[in-house]
Amino acid sequence: MARRESAAAGPGSRALIVDLIRSSGPISRVELVKATGLTQPTISNIVRRLIDDGVVRETGDLVATRGKPRSMLVINSRAAYGVGIHVAADALTCVVTDTRGGTVGRQLVAAPSGGSPSESLVARLADLYHEVTQGLGLPPQSVAGMAVVGPGPVDVARGRFLSLPGPQRPGSTWPTP
């Protein structure tokens, strides 16, 4: 008798499978079927696409069973990267992480001084991003996301930090990138 697919077989299935592989460590396709309730063909199709996209890889380890040995799946930690830049009054810190959250690179530089806060900060953030990613040899398409954070309130409508700790000119604001 055919098994009916659950709602999880929709667009979120890929994300579900990636999250299970990431959180479970090496896991087989059979274990993914048991954990999700999706059918074996659905799991096989999703995993095949994830392998083709470089998001998941087979470890080469096999688990012996009564039938065909099961190959184990893990996240390809070098498939995509995230970049974060922390803005402080006196320094900018750029950190690059892999898909498992491991730090790939980090660079600390002095915050821009003098000139217009808007122009110097935005230019320095862009320069720092390019210096770090190019220094690590990351292709631009491998960066999946970027975040810029800073302490204090943010005027979201205008895209500006309202204030940062430390010395500033009276009435100045810092743009968010």
Please specify the SSE layout and strand pairing.
Elements lengths: L12 H12 L2 E2 H8 L3 H13 L3 E8 L6 E6 L5 E7 L3 E8 L4 E8 L6 H19 L7 E7 L4 E2 L4 E2 L12 E2 L2
Parallel strand pairs: 4-7
Antiparallel strand pairs: 1-3, 2-3, 4-5, 5-6, 8-9, 9-10
Note down, in words, how this protein is organized:
- The chain is 29% helix and 29% strand.
- It is of the alpha+beta class and 177 residues long.
- The strands form three sheets. It has a four-stranded mixed beta sheet with strand order 6-5-4-7, covered by helices on one side. Strands 1-3-2 form a three-stranded antiparallel beta sheet.
Number of helices: 4
- Name the average pLDDT: 82
Rg value: 22 Å
**Percent in strands:** 25-35%
Summarize the structure.
The chain is of the alpha+beta class and 177 residues long. It is 29% helix and 29% strand.
